[in-house]
User: Fold these one by one.
Assistant:
Number 1:
Amino acid sequence: MKVTFWLLDVNYEVRNNEPEIWLWGIDTSGNRVLIIDRKFTAYFYAVVEEAFDPSKVFEEIEQNKADYPFIVKVEAVERKFFGKPVKALKVYCRNPDVMTRYARAFRKIEGIKECFEDDIRYSMRYLIDNDVIPCAWHEVEAVEEEEKKVEVQVDHVYVAESHPKFMEKTDIPNLRVLGFSTICYSREGSPKPERNPVVMISVATNSGEEKQFLAGEDKGDGPVIEAFIDYVQSFDPDIIVGYGVNRQDWAYLNERCKKLGLRFFVDRAKTEPHTSVYGHVSITGRANVDLFDFADEFSEVKVKTLENLADYLGVMKIEKRILIEDVEFADYWDDKTKRELLKQFSMDSTRCIMGVAEAILDFAMQLSSLVSLPLDHVGTAAVGFRVEWFLIKHAQKIGELVPKRVEQPYRPYVGAIVLSPKPGLHENIAVLDFASMYPNLMIAYNLSPDTYVSPKEPVPPGGFYEAPEVKHRFRKEPPGFYKEVLSHLIGVRDEIRSKMKAYARDSVEYRVLDARQKAVKVITNASYGYAGWIGARWYIKPVAEAATAWGRHTIINAIKMAEEEGLKVVYGDTDSIFIKYEPEKVERLTARICGKLGLEIKPDKVYTRIFFTEAKKRYAGLLPDGKLDIVGLEVIRGDWAAIAKKLQEKVLEIILKEQSPQKAAKFTQQFIYELRQRRVPFRDLIIWKTLTKPVEEYAVKASHVEAAKMLIEKGWKLAIGDKIGYVVVVGTGRLYERVKPYMFASYNEVDIDYYVTNQIVPAAARILESFGITEEQLLTSKVEDKERETRRLTDFFGS
DNA sequence: GCAGCCCTATTACCT
DNA sequence: ACAGGTAATAGGGCTGCG
């Protein structure tokens, strides 16, 4: 029979040296199905010396077959390696788990140069070779198997008679989504599974059900976890979502179960959650998605807590939440009057998870299908690996061998050009942007690992492009691997975007297409970075180096042409130029640039007024709709206290809208006064900085590191990448000797002078010094005390 | 002992 | 654990100073 299914998860099993691919999915009737495919044989490649007759090596392998009992077949094939034709043997192995060992042995055989692709996991090999795509529909000829069904939680188990075939069908089935969050009880700092129970688990489903499992007064968590397991099994979700679960909750629950003698079966095949590739926790037959892994997509959210992300995405405003720190959980649990608040906090966390999942899952699924990484680990894979899997998929199609990852020394190279801005205010400035500059340069000049012509090589027959300055050469013909992939991606994105126009913005179709075009954009934009990444399998430094060289050449020429049109360039960075907006001239210019440089440039936006500091990469512009565009300045930095950011934003607004430095200076003085009265919220004084390495590895003493040490001292468990929030308190000595984690400090010990001189004044002076207002002037207020009393900041901010 | 200078470590931004 | 270019702060070493 024919089974049509949407692929949710994939895993493989090897029993008696016979592998099976397990494809977990949902069929068109909404049945949960498992399709078992036993018909796919793993393989690796052994590249042989050009001079050797492959059949001779072939014979040698045949003769020594006893050494390699799992080899089922060897065939001579033609492949490419970095674009150059190579002879190879394709060695098929019955048991995929022996390939790395075999490949190592093969390298010692006379006539074999190198082995490839033994490092591609069997399940990924299966997906890529058979064009089986995660989060997409397929059709398969299969027979039902009753016997297996008792062991797995699905409606039907099928054995595939042939490999599934991808189907163009873009809808997403009705998936069951379950979200959860946990509360652990600890009076000794961060909870440890060997001693601290999970006193609360809050779950919610996309069918609208909410549940809480609570420990009794003895805090025994056996029943809590059992109830959770039962609930998961009975709801039988396709996707389980959480926040930080890959790092925390799953391992914790696993450990608790071990301690309590419980079997932690929340999957569809009676196995326990286990950590797998790229650090994701795998729940067989379901997709475990940790939304934290997608938080990086939202750079505007500086401190990546669930609450902040939910607030940003409009899921639940942070003001509406009761926020409870992890270390306070025990107090809230023990105090009967506060336990209700803890319950509400926990339930709200799960509600936030469900809301964030709603906002992210479409994108996650589209990214998953685009790069072919299963949904549960596309999030945990770093950007470089997402790009790489996308490339591997294409390499397979064109017969390009996948290079091994080899350790490379870090060798920096020259990047983009940034112009010094003309400081001060400018009116009516247009920003011209080259669209997807690096990808388009790679297409235009055929920059690719397989088109690079090294200095030792002769001139290729079809000619070559030579990058300016660096003089790297690339064959004009045939089109390289990157050119094909990137042209395809850019074409697909345009296609999607034009399709989107047919749908209403709030329709399901629009949302799915939008998620798809975003995924395509992310991969396209990361391609240049991938090319210059020393960890890349296809790393060839000249490819990245030539891209930036062509970029510099392009922008320099664009500037020249702008000046020829009589348009003065006031700023530019990498792929953009800022010029006076004179419509006819701009139109002529863009046409000329496109014609001469072969790259599209178009006006991105026009600022009614723009302000540049002396520094590059820091400016603020006023848009026609009255909105401010603030770039690089303290306002958008996460490591300045909110008071400094809010004040600077207000200063910029006064400058750009009213052009009154005097008013801005007065406002600053007033603000300082209000701050000295401690009339600003305490949380606005917190400074957040990331811990980028273990505290003991820092070469110099730093505020956030000292604060982190205090947290560790009190039992906090900190990880690399965590943001430390601290405030500066009164005292003597170095700054780092006068900081405290914000939760340990009270408002009255805060060193207001520090905030005035090191936060408020620099942030305001950054802008106002351009207008002749000094730091001293900001500090010596001429505002009469009486006026201060009457003119509160509410006059500016509203109340 | 400390102001002043310079360099370095560190973080976070821009494209 | 995708690139290089850039700004900015604070630490820390050093000099010179009654």
Note: Residues 299, 302, 415-416, 418, 433, 437-438, 573-576, 616-618, 631-633, 636-639, 689-690, 692, 698-700, 702, 704 of chain A lie near DNA strand B (CB under 10 Å from a C1').
Number 2:
Amino acid sequence: MNRIFALVDCNNFYVSCERLFSASIQNKPVIVLSNNDGCVVARSNEVKKLGVKMGQPVFEIKNLIEQHNIVLFSSNYSLYADMSDRVMQLLATFASEVEVYSIDESFLNLSHVSLESLQEYGEEIRATVWQFTGIPVSVGIATTKTLTKIATEIVKKQTGYLGVLSIAQMSEAELDELLEGISVEDVWGIGHRYAAALRTRDIYTAKDLKYTDPHWIRRHLTVVGARTVLELRGISCIPLETKVKPKKGIMSSKTFGRPIDQLQELEEAVANYTARAAEKLRDQDSLVLCINVFIQTNVFQKDAPQYSKSLSKMLPFPTAFTPDLISAALEALHSIYQPGYSFKKAGVYFSKIVSQESIQFDLFGNFTVEGHVKKTKLMCVVDLLNRLLGRDTLFFGAQGISREWKMRQERRSPRYTTQWSELLSTT
DNA sequence: CGGCGTTAG
DNA sequence: TATTCTAACGCCG
């Protein structure tokens, strides 16, 4: 029996979240900004029509913003994450297997639904999410994950589908007709580089790609590209990943709100990023063995002196204890720091991540079981308090207090759904 | 195995 | 004046 997949994709997700709490921006052009309010990361349809691109720097569209009264928001991740949870919980009631693919997308296994009722089933999913969360979604249904992406693409771009399209029951000829209308760079897994390579071989549409020689694809687009071709042919080879896998790398990095030249401020920033990364690490019950610290000046400032350096440090034994990680990070920072530069960005990256279960004892280092247990318990308490009472209720001295280097976020909406003090009120 | 390139959201 | 962040994976040497 053929498998059936659905892709449920929230429309302009961050913008839709903001619109839930503001009646006045329903049909207005709305943009959500990246960290530091620097780039566009979400656009309402009105803004897409104006030609604003994903990731575009805000300063490039300053005039457009004024001319069209575009409403700007800083990103409000507490709100988006909470709304995402609510949507995903609802989706889980429609299928026994769900893959939460990103903050605004899930794949569902719909193999239990008959071909004739797929369209209707999709419409029920959409109506339910809308009723209980107010978030509009698009649903694409097909026999492979790559084809669900295409169905969703069509739903979003062409009017008349009302949010749901099943192409699972279509004949090969009908399918090919649809694929002919999709540019090859709009196929999932084909980015701008691969698209350019394909165009040199006169491959312009999803249909062209579907009928391309698999050996050529295998050579030039790797095994991933070969899978994409098979998926376009209706052969499912990208399985549903239902289990959340622990991350193999954890990164915490940010551009500063303003350039930094003092070592002490860099230390604060690096300590903070390390603390964040360590939280994520403990969240997935992991320990880390290798920590990498990097700093860089403003790469866009062409005429300013540039400096960029990173350094990895192996830890003596795997740990998730924030103070130990901060010490290691600061040591690395001191090795790479050069005075006389204005730094604009720093980051911390954890690699060689292992499960807490499979801890390897270090015979020669100063690892002791008692010490490990004590540190684990302490971090448990810190995490618990911060979860209950808000981030940074407890933090380490090295993280600093004033944090003047912090990113700019001048237009963040209230955390309506996760902070009692920020509930929507009418007064 | 590390570095690089590519893609995704 | 001004330009996100995070993660995965395949290939190659």
Note: DSSP finds 13 helices and twelve strands in chain A.
Number 3:
Amino acid sequence: MPAVARTSTEAMVAAGRRIIEHDGLDALTMLAVADAVGVRGSSLYKRVSGRDALVVMIAEQVIGELVEAVDQALDGEDAARDLRAFANAFRAFAHRNRATYPLLFDAQAGPVSPAVLERSAAPVRRVVAALAGPEHELSAARMLTAWAHGFVSMELAGAFQLGGDVDEAWEYALDGLITALSRHD
Amino acid sequence: MPAVARTSTEAMVAAGRRIIEHDGLDALTMLAVADAVGVRGSSLYKRVSGRDALVVMIAEQVIGELVEAVDQALDGEDAARDLRAFANAFRAFAHRNRATYPLLFDAQAGPVSPAVLERSAAPVRRVVAALAGPEHELSAARMLTAWAHGFVSMELAGAFQLGGDVDEAWEYALDGLITALSRHD
DNA sequence: ACCTGAACACCGTTCAAGT
DNA sequence: ACCTGAACACCGTTCAAGT
């Protein structure tokens, strides 16, 4: 009648994330996760409703860390400096999580929960508010996030292959964004 | 000894694309494609090496059409007008191809061929060259593409859910980009 | 209350055999 | 030269049976 819990949801999320990062999303099979946490495949369904749900949980954990990373990069003193710091921390995080980053805004994986979405929007809005002013805060935040996400996802997908210096393109755009967001028109 | 070809690679690509657009990427099974083109599953492997290869072929066809769409939106007269036209054609195309667009810069699906990549870069470079000048052409093209791709992919993924007017954010960023790319510094 | 083995439906892919 | 049926390995998921 008793029962011994031999694994946990956190262990499954951690294992799944490790598998994706090491061998790619296709390698994330329920059996591979079960093996990694030391349980049989069918036992996983006590904790998650299925593979898709597990992927979403992994994505939400990664988002959480991304928000933390960009948040710590800000100091609230110089708006332009903070925008650079935000973008650079964003990009560095994506590079440190090459395989899981693409899950974050993946239409296929389904959207993350609104709560997570809202928390993740906070630091971006803070960064741009000082530059663009409150009336353009949301639009400016969307401009910055769209560019940063687009850039790193194209970069990670290998879409920048026509030569040139990718870092230079990053800096060029960063300068341009500061100019653009400082308009106050 | 003879042989009758009962289908074609183009028919398979078209069927696959239809399946993705109607029922999502997961619904693209080799059997579903075979059914759609009127052949048995095992026959598909005469024409494509596997499911992954078929997805890449679909992605390349979609990219080709995207390039054509943005190309036709340009008139070469007014640089700022062309940038707007480019971006709006880009976004409209993505909305018309909600399910297949996410394949384009998908790290998972693997990169499209360098040849396709080069052809697709041409119109963007043309658009920004007039504004940003030749020395910043590549960086400016990357800024514009990154933003446009990031914006529409986040939009399609349902990432813009914190209220506000998404169209307004699009226009705001478009204005900002024109400002930023016109610097000539 | 959690774990297990067995089972099911469904994949992608291969290949010998047909015409 | 292309098509087919059968087979293989491998999925995700369910569920009755164990402890």
Note: Residues 1-4, 29-31, 41-42, 45, 50-51 of chain B lie near DNA strand C (CB under 10 Å from a C1').
Number 4:
Amino acid sequence: MSNFYERVYENVKKIPKGRVATYGTIAAMCGNPRASRSVGAALHRNPSPGVVPCHRVVFTNGTLAKNYAFGGSSAQKELLKSEGISFLRDGRVDIKKNVWLPWIS
DNA sequence: GGACTGACACTGG
DNA sequence: ACCAGTGCCAGTC
């Protein structure tokens, strides 16, 4: 059951389109800002395709997960670009402009 | 109940 | 600005 994981999925679902959130943020929403690791594990375990936009979850530095469960960071990057997310020349997300703050939304 | 693992985050060099 | 090491949490074996 893992109530914690379900909570993570719910939080990720709340991420608005065209915006990204960091693992730390999701963990904070879940109640444990330090559980960022468990958040990533949850997404990799049960991505719930079409239900949980796991592609909107990125690192605090704007980098993408190399082991993305769907098609690698490449697919994730494309998805984000489709949502209108700005990318830097380095290939990482412009976290500075696209990061979503739940308490601000 | 104990130990290992993982899509992270932070600090230091 | 980049790489390496350490800490945290929850889950699974």
Note: The mean pLDDT of chain A is 96.
